[in-house]
Amino acid sequence: SAAGGCSGAAEEQALSKLVVRLQNVQERKRLETLVQTLSDLLELAARQSAPRLFSGKNVHVPLLLVVDLYPGAAGVQQMGWSLLCKLIEICPSTLHHIAPKDVGKDWEALGVHQQILKMLTVHKGNVNLSVVGLKALNLLLMSDVIAFLLLEEEVDVFSLVFNAMHTFPKNEEIQQHGCKALHKLFEKVPEEQLTEFVESKDHMIILKVFKEFSEKEEVILPALYSLHSLAGPCNNVEVLMSGNVRCYNIIVEMMKTFPNSETVQEVSCCLLHKLTLGNFFNILVLHKVPEVIVKAAKTYPENAKLQAAALSCLALLTETIFLNQDLEERKEEEEEEKLCWLEACYRALELHRRNTDVLEAACWALKNLFLYQRNLHEKIGDGDNQFPIDRAVMLSMLMHSSSKEVFQAAASTLAILSQQNVNIRKTLLAKGIHMNVLDIMRKHPHSPEVAESACRILNHVFKGSFPHLDIMTVAVSEVVKAMRKHEKSLSLQLEALRVLLHFMMPGNSHLFLKNNFKNKQLSCCHCKQNKLDLILCSVQKCGLKLLASVAECTGALEILTQQGATDTVLHTLQMYPDEQDIQCLGLSLLHSLITRKSLCIATMHVLSTVLVSALRRFKEVTEIQMHGFHTILSILDLSPCFAKLLVHESFDTVIFHQMSMCFTDQRDRQFQSLCCKCFAKIAENDDIKNMMLEKACIEYNSIMAECLLLLGADINKKTKTNSLIYQVCEKGNNPKLVELLLANGAREQDVRSALAISIKRGDSQIISLLLKRLSLDVANSSICLGGFGIGRLEPSWLIPLFPDKLTPLRKQNAGSALARMVLKFQMKNISEDRSRASSDLNFSEDGVDKNYDWNFISDPLVDSVFPFSDDIDSEGSEGSLFTKKKSNSIAVADLYCREMTFQRGSPTFPRHSYSVGPGSDYEPLMKQRRKFLPSDESPSISKFSPHIRPSDSLSSLVSEKEYIKSLDLSSNELENIDAISQNSCLTSHLEHLEKLELHQNALTNIPEQLCENLKCLTYLDLHSNRFTSFPTYLLKMNCIANLDISRNDIGPSFALDPYLRCPTLKQLNLSYNQLVCTPEFLTNVAENLEQLLLEGNKISCLCSPICLKELKILNISKNNISSLAENVFMGCTKLEQFNARMNALEIIPDLSSSITSLKLSQNHFINVPEAVLLLPHLRSVDLSQNKIISLPGPMHWKSLNLRELLFNYNQIDILDLSEKACAWSRLEKLHLSHNKLKEARLLKKVKLQW
Predict the structure, then answer these.
(1) In angstroms, rounded to a whole number, what is the distance separating the alpha carbons of residues 393 and 457?
(2) Coil, strand or helix: which one is 113?
(3) Of 191, 472, 492, 596, which sits 20 to 30 A from 251 (CA to CA)?
(4) Long-range contacts made by residues 509-517, C-beta under 8 angstroms, separation at least 24?
(5) Is the peptide bond prior to 388 cis by the omega test (within 30 degrees of 0)?
């Protein structure tokens, strides 16, 4: 001991000397000495006596100063931080002393948190210093103050740690200390920052640790802890579970690698629990996660944290485990594997009775296990190979009655066991669990979750038993209290009502309900609970049947209405939209409960929604449809405005379907009539009628569309978007509906917009119908498609435009039959209203019947579809369409007249409304008749016979004007019309055409076959296209007289076949092409040509004579002609008009003596050509804008019929009228403006000078 004392004294002395050296260190002192001092101190700190030696010496103070003085000295930094780490380990109080006392103060020297960050920054490339720095950082992070200061610094401590781990990925110590530091730092930052780390993929550095050091537990463990911290936010869980990361595979692998490490198993289970909370059940089950969790739970049953995490995972994964096993081929031994965590749960309940987390997790795991393995309850009990789990769960519930979570889990488990096993149910009931549950409910009066769990277990415990009246009273009292307390918890209401349902079962339910119904207060409570929702389907059916029975009692309806039965039924219907029985019962009840007093705007809104929803869902269930339509009809009788609410909920779709089905399916007679009555009521409003027409068009229901149109719906009524016909054409594929809309007066601008969209869609049949409406002019035998810009032309579009010789009448259709039926009910309603009003005014019924008697028009289609029973129609013969006698018959008469009009395709009548509203007079019907009929007398039935053929029908027009004579396809951007020539169906129509206009398109040729088919064509206009050559076969057409192929790109020349003859051609227009000469052999081919137009070409000279003896007009203006050949007009003996404006002519050698009009302006004439002066029949001369210097006087002109002389813009200086001025006696115009006139010689010896 003396030696030990001497040794201790020596150590004390040595330490004192070393501390003095450290305190007196100078900046310029040799580093080797300083490093040696630090090394000696480190050696002392490593001794067994170090805690005693260094206690109270405050060595850390000079040490931190030295470290601060030498930030760049690697040796000093390494020894210094190593010594500080050792000091913290041997004297934990050192950590408290080095932490800054005043966090908000600016220190003179750097704080320890700043020094460690500086060292890691300066020496980030030094592996040894990185190891020491991360180790020191881990020790410093044990202080909450230092940790807070580190996170507040501008230098990012996370970046330093991640950088070190990334720089030295294979260094075990760096990875170990780095993961430890990250775990501690992650625990102190908010979730938002954790999400940022994962988004920037920093977590990948941690994942690499598992790959590099898969066998090193001391490295793997801190990495797992770091991942556990990162897996907090939901977004991070998604990334960790993604295909690129698959964190679950890493965890499973680590659990398999370190099966004997309890810590690894614990943190792995906790981490898997976090991943499970992300709802990635299927992925985890497929990758064998449950297997490793079960193994861990079995291996370490006393580890509470592991048990809580493992059993929570299994509770969440149970459903997926069993579903996947059901999909696989299961063997008998696999059946046993399902029981693998039953024993683990039981051991957890026994070993951790005081740990609520473990108890809660075990109960939930058991509950789901029993739920998905139905026969497992057989393993529960006190027998051999059984587990008394029911006792353990009940004990847990009673021991921790103050824990809501444990009670919920335990109650759910016991509820499942009670449901599956009668013996367990009896055992629990015998032990008085129901009283314990009611006591726990009282302890947690403000928790709906506790109340719901309590009701759930009571529901199953009471099943099949009839408790004592006292128990029933207590239970009902507590359950009703909970229901009142937590009115908004629907799941609680469900479980509570299930409990109460046990007390209303046969034997005492009738008495129970009767007593409650008699007691006003309890009745209100009962209705209130129904409002909150009798969610259970069987309870709803029972309740509705009860209400239906009560409603049949005298005076019960009023009481039910007062207690809110209508709202109860409505709410029930809303909550069970797909339950057929409930909907049927509910709609039947509504029909009885609805009264005028109970109707308000809010109720009608709900009614419309509920009714239409039920009718749409069960459109094929006649019983529901009957109840629904009866209810709607009764409400419409009470409030006509209900119709708008119905249409807003798309009731029109429902009634369209049902009325259309009358023609495709034999429905009940009464139901058919009921549909018509409802439709008649709704169609009394014009606005609703128009809305229904729009809906019918949207739904492509041509039957209802025609019916509504016949009833007076306005096709041109403004809609929210586009016109009706546009909407129909936009959807396409319904030519019948398009034809119907066209026949009923669709506006032309709407038809044009519909045509554009139909062309885009390519609906040939619809396009034909639209084009027929827009272009066909039967009266003038023409089709005008000019300016439509249709882009292409299909034969299928054109064929229907050519009328057939016979247009048969269409058969009677469903739409008109429906319209007749609806109108019948409307008129019948008016008759009843008028009769009622007349009786109120003391009029006799005989008078009413006399004024409103009915005539009937037989309609076979109506008879076959709507065979009336006596209760529906008691007037007249069965199955007849009626019309009023005298003046009142006009409504049906007009309907029939409109129908005949639509069938024959004749022009439509002006638009009128044919609906008759409730309480309206018949005067509007009289006004309608005056618009349709020439006299006020009632039209006889024979006038509307279906055998009548109107004089203006299409068939009569076709017989008068058999064929289309004119076809205009101009301005349509057509690039070719080959399809027309190749269609045989068009040939018979085209061969009768006399006029064809194809100008202003993009044609490059015209098919020769088409020209052969145009046997009667006299006029062909091809101007403003893209022809580059002249189609000579155009001149082979038999009757062609007028050919306009101007404004193309024909040129520079073309020659005709000299053997071709076209004697019918009278006018040829080749203006504005690229010709440099006149067509060769033209005189041979078109010997009877009267007009030749060559304006706007590039002709420079007329070198050969033009021998066209019938030519009357020649236009060669706007060319580059500078000369004319001798005798160029030798053969043009009938030429009357010659136009050579805007050329380069200086002289004209010869002109035809028959010329009367001559236009030579904008040329290069200096003098008036002699050939012009010698023309005997000349009437008009235009030589303006030349360079003529003198105007020959009257004596020089041979013609005595001059009317116009246009010489403006020349160089004329003298006007000589001195001789034979009378030769110009007929002159009407003499233009000499913009010349250089200085003198006018009027008579001899008289001069006028300027």
Answers:
(1) 13
(2) helix
(3) 191
(4) 513/546, 517/550
(5) no
What are phi and psi for residue 706, nearest 5 degrees? Answer: -65, -40
Beta bridge partners of 411: none
Nearest to 942 by CA among 887, 888, 883: 883
CA distance 437 to 450: 9
Asked if residues 868 and 669 have their Cβ atoms less than 8 Å apart, the reply is yes
State how far the Cα of 369 lies from the Cα of 389, in Å rounded to an integer: 13
DSSP class per residue in 672-728: HHHHHHHHHHHTTSHHHHHHHHHHHHHTT-HHHHHHHHHTT--TT---SSS-HHHHH
More confident call, 271 vs 520: 271
pLDDT the model gives residue 1244: 54
Angle at 305 between CA 302 and CA 309, to 5 degrees: 115
890 neighbors 943 (Cβ within 8 angstroms)? no
For residues 889 and 185, which has the higher predicted lDDT (pLDDT)?
185
- Partnered with residue 1139 across adjacent β-strands are 1115, 1159
Cα–Cα distances in angstroms (integers) from residue 685 to residues 641, 821, 822, in the given order: 9, 17, 13
What is d(CA 557, CA 541) in angstroms, rounded to the nearest whole number? 19
- Asked whether residue 142 carries a pLDDT value surpassing 50, the answer given is yes
Separation between Cα atoms, residue 750 and residue 549, nearest integer Å: 58
The greatest distance separating any two alpha carbons of the chain, rounded to the nearest whole angstrom, comes to 173
Cα–Cα distance, 658 to 632 (Å, whole number): 14
Query: Do 682 and 642 touch, CB atoms closer than 8 A?
Result: no
* Paired residues of 1159 in beta bridges: 1139, 1182
Looking up tokens 């928790």 gives: 447
Q: What b/e readout covers 147-158, taking b as 16+ CB neighbours within 10 angstroms?
A: bebbeeeeeebb
Which helix (H) or strand (E) segment holds residue 104: the answer is none
Answer left, alpha or beta for residue 764, where phi above 0 means left and psi between -120 and 50 means alpha. Answer: alpha
Tally of CB atoms within 10 A around 1111: 27
Picking from 570, 558, 634, the residue whose alpha carbon sits closest to that of residue 602 is 570
| CA proximity to 305, closest of 255, 267, 248 | 267
Asked whether the CA dihedral 806, 811, 814, 815 is positive or negative, the reply is: positive
Whole-model pTM: value is 0.52
3-state helix, strand, coil in the chain (%, to 5): 55, 5, 40
Tally Cβ neighbours within 10 Å of residue 1047. 20
Residue 837: band (very low, low, confident or very high) from pLDDT cuts 50, 70, 90: low
d(CA 546, CA 564): 15
State how far Cα 72 lies from the chain centre: 66
Query: What Cα–Cα distance (Å) separates residue 717 from each residue in 431, 723, 823, 914?
Result: 77, 8, 21, 15
Q: Of the given ranges (105-119, 455-469, 496-510, 799-813), which has the lowest mean pLDDT? A: 496-510
- Are β-strands 1246-1249 and 1239-1243 bridged in parallel, bridged antiparallel, or unpaired? antiparallel
Q: How do residues 1153-1185 score in pLDDT, each as one tens digit?
A: 999 999 999 999 999 999 999 999 999 999 999
Phi, psi at 1092, each rounded to 5°: -130, 115
Q: What pLDDT is stored for residue 332 in this prediction? A: 43
**Residue 1238: partners with Cβ closer than 8 Å, 6 or more residues away:** 1213, 1214, 1249, 1250
Cβ burial of 518 (10 Å; 0-12, 13-18, 19+) is exposed
Do residues 84 and 97 lie in contact, with contact meaning Cβ atoms separated by under 8 Å? no
Rounded to whole angstroms, the Cα distance separating 475 from 481 reads 10
Handedness of CA 1218, 1223, 1229, 1234 (dihedral sign): negative
d(CA 178, CA 180): 5
Backbone angles phi, psi at 422, to 5 degrees: -65, -40
